[in-house]
């Protein structure tokens, strides 16, 4: 049987396995398209098939057609944000070799949110693009801070130390955020709804604002796949094989920070997507990041769209923000990971 040579750190993979992975990725793509159509068709208002097709063709003559037209950018936005969170979580787990790594658990989401709040409350930010840059800056500073704290002491940046440093940072930054917001009643209401994390109210203008940052993050992340495979072997062995460990880790982390920061600026901190998706994808394709990253992007997009649809259905005629739905799903998943797996390197 013919074999394909995998990158450093993975075993040779048979053509049958490659075909299985390719077919699985295609199936995920078809499933994602089905979820997109479900998101357009299902909501707090029931619509007829004729209204769906009319809205997809650009007509908004009736209330039902207008409702469907509003769901189209919301669906696209949810897919982009879900893919960004799934990819960023996978990269953070690969860079830190920590199965508990996630933008929320490591405090990166909270750092991005705190930066936005400080810019809004203290510096009077009003331009939309400044929110994105500020969130990315906050995410980057927080990631460096957590990794530095987790690296102190004997043993360096172990998974347990990183998780503890991230949890402590997240709690501290959440308190700082509340302290900044409390005296500002003029922005408190809008911030609370944003802090929950949701994709409602998405527009094509908002998508165009964050799209360049997301695309840059996607490209950098996917180009880091082979480097992440090398890092999985350990720093010493990766360096012995000719890999620039610091550059590889920094490049991959940059992609994750761009994705996480842009997503947080656009829709607020949405947790647990970056934790669940990588673990589920590893069950399907293993630890080869050449496959794991595309799977994570498709799975993250599908998961967030599905969570958004569930949030619209279970609270009719109102709806639950997608951040609440992912928290309900992700919290038990996090407990399961802690109970069933040893918190060690990937």
Instruction: State the helicity in percent bands.
Output: over 70%
Query: Might you state the CATH topology name?
Result: ABC transporter involved in vitamin B12 uptake, BtuC
Number of domains: 1
Strand content: under 5%
Mean pLDDT: 85
Low-pLDDT stretches: 1-5
Radius of gyration: 20 Å
Main beta sheet strand tally, sense and closure: 2 strands, antiparallel
CATH class: Mainly Alpha
Task: Note the overall shape.
Answer: globular
Could you tell me the number of beta strands? 2
Distance N to C terminus:
30 Å
What multimeric state do the chains show? Answer: single chain
The order of strands across the largest sheet is 1-2
What is the helix/strand order? EEHHHHHHHHHHHHHH
CATH homologous superfamily annotation: ABC transporter involved in vitamin B12 uptake, BtuC
